Structures are given as C-alpha cells and as structure tokens.
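Subject: Sanity check before I submit

Could someone independently write out the structure tokens for this chain? I want to compare against mine line by line before I put it in a report. The sequence has 446 residues.
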Amino acid sequence: MVSGKLVPATPDEDELWRLAVRTLDGNWEHDHTAPSRTLYPHQWSWDSAFIAIGWAHVHPDRAWTELTSLFDAQWRDGRVPHIVFNPAVPVDAYFPGPGFWASAAVDGAPRVATSGLVQPPVHALAAWHAYRRAPSESGRAALGRLYPRLVAQQRYLATHRDVGGAGLASIVHPWESGLDNSPAWDAPLAAVPAEVAALGAYRRRDLAHAAAAHRPTDLDYARYVAIVTAYRTAGYRDDGLADEHPFLVECPLFNAAMGAAEHALAGIAGEIGADPGPHTERAARITTALVNRLYDPTTGTFHPRDLRTGRLTPARTVLGLTPLLLPDLPARQVEAIRVEAVSSRFGLATRMPRPLPSHDRTAADFEPLRYWRGPSWMNINWLVRHGLLGHGHTELAAGLRASMIELATTAGCHEYFHPETGVGLGSPAFGWTAALLLDVLATPDR
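---
Independent answer below. Compare away.
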C-alpha cells in the first residue's frame, strides 16, 4: 500500500509504477518538480497541478508543497504565472527567461521572477483530487491555506480576463492555452505581425533539446515573442486588452477548466467549512456561457472564439472534447462530444488501436510529430478520461486508460507521443506523464 492506495499488482504495471516514481523523484527540487531536466528546468503552472495529483499517491506532503510553492508566486491581482523561475538555474538555460519577462519591474508581481502569463486553471481540480487520493488532517489544513488563493485565481480570471463580457475568460497568448501551436490558433495568429528580422534577436533553447520538426516553427516563435512584448510593454495590465492586444481568444479547455475549478472549490469549501453555494452558482454560469459562446451546432463540437473577429476558429482539435470536464454540461453537448470523440478524427474506443491525437487526424494539416498539431499528450488524455467518467461513459474511459498505460509501456514517460505508433517524443522523463500514469494505475475505472 502507498498512501492508502493499492499499488498495481501485475508485473508490468508494477514496473511502470516504479518508473513513474523514479521519474518524479529525479525531477524533484526543494519545493517543486521540474517538468523535465532538459527543456523545462523551472516550475510550470499546470504541470505542477498535474504533478501534485501523482505525488498524492506516493508522497502527499510533496503534493501540497508543489501547489503551495506555485501559489507563493501568485501576483497581487490573483494571477498564477505560467512559469516560476528557479534562481538556481542559469538565466540562459531557457528562453524566454526571467530577463525577457522582467516581472520585477511590475507592481504587484512577487519577489521571485515569473512570467506574466497564466495557464489553464486546473489547480483547484488538482488540489481536490490530491486530497481525495490521500485524505489527512495535514491535507485538510493545506486545502484550507490554498482555498483563498484558489478563489483569488478564479476571481482574477472572471473579472480581469472577461474581455468579451459574456462570462468567459480570454487568453492573451497561445501559451496560456497550454496547447501552444495547436491549429486552433492558426487563424488568430495569422493576424499578428511578426517581423522576420526579429527571428535573429533571440536564441531558441528548445531546439537544443528537440528536433525542429517536433517543435513550433520559427514564425510561430516570432509571433509568440511579439504578443508577449505587447503585453509586457503594457505592464501586463488587462484593462486595455480589448483595444490594443493582438491576440484575444476564448478557449474551450481554459474555460472548461475554470468551470471545473468552481465545482472542485465547492467540494473544498464543504470540506473546510466554507460555503460551497457561490462556487456552484458560478460553475453553472460558466457552463451556460461556454455552451452559448463556443459550441457550434453545425460541427457538433466546441471551438475557440477569436474576439478580434467574433468568429469561432475552424480547426477541429482535442480542445473540442475538453468541456466534458464540466459535470453540468447538458446532455445534448455531452452526446455531441462523444460522437466527435469516437469519430475517425479522434478514434476514441473501448479498445483503442491508436492513441488519442491532439488534432483531427483526418485534417490536411495534421502533423504527427509537431507538438500540439497531432501528437498524443497524457494530460489531455487524463482530462478527457476524467470527463468521460463524470458523465458515465465508463467503457470509453477504460479504453482511454488502457491506451495511456500502453503509451507508457511502449515509450516510457515521454513528454508526448506519436499519435499513430505511440513512439515517445519531446523530453524524456517528463513530470506530468509520470504523475498521471501513477494516477491511472492506482484508479481503475469503475
């Protein structure tokens, strides 16, 4: 037994369990887990959330330390930065590094260097999962300390980032979605000016650790840098976003995570003696807004909305499946997502011959090697599986779980995987892959 959970009994799963634990141990710093020892040497926001879920199975104290260290870097306005820079790591080990973000010059930023962007707010969901995986008095106390910070995170997103005025949060950069170079962002990014001369003004560190064919293109990066530069020049302030910022999108995953966070906060509130009612009410409003704003009855799936044009972006990506996270998603949309998921585009099945891709595998721009333009990712698989279980699709959830375990069996704890062959891609010994592997091994579908 580990933290009250049954360690997998089969020899193969036993070895996978040990591999995952070794991976997390190898990436552990004094108060957080680096996503990898190669490409990602600092602390990343939604990585830490997923990693906390895994730690709960083997070292619950590290789960709470992981989340606490991240929220110690929360800005005064409530935002949780997508990178917290480790001062022990050389400043040139990652681009864009702390000097590029220049958070120290911003009023309301923490003392530690951070980025100025956010990532999907999966943290309340992770904290609630971590507690339920390993309930204890110390865990309840940690929940109590995190609760007001999680509430502040949600308040920031619901106020500062509701640029469209319809109850959804807007992302101001593709990095905030977590799916950096997804085809979902092609149309909004095409309108962002990127001077070719800017390509020589910085050195991409990612290409020292991964093949260029597996990563976002130089043109993508030029646009990424242009968007950050615009936001940084404005002091990372959100009050002028509607007028001036070049990239503004309402993302299905980001907002589904925000709604799921309110449901998780309702559970946390009940556990620590706070009022769950306001969280349940806010969750319902988010779900309604997400259906009204991002569901396309013509395609039968969810799409991001580009606030610059007012139009839904056309690509059919795995983002369209993630509203399953919402337990109060109407039955019509749940069924539409199921149809989309089992179609030839994504291939979800009770027995899956291929992994779940991040993009429609029948699309002309499907790229099986390039980051979020095709490959399979363990964290998205985990989120979709969580949603399937919440809506009673246990057989499909079991198929996805088996596919996740098969990926790790075939390729280990890689960052992401080839969506046809399951070959490991990106960084080896990747933190959230190991953490979520532990969780699916320890929690068979019921």
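---
OP: Matches mine. For the report I'm noting this point. The radius of gyration is 20 Å.
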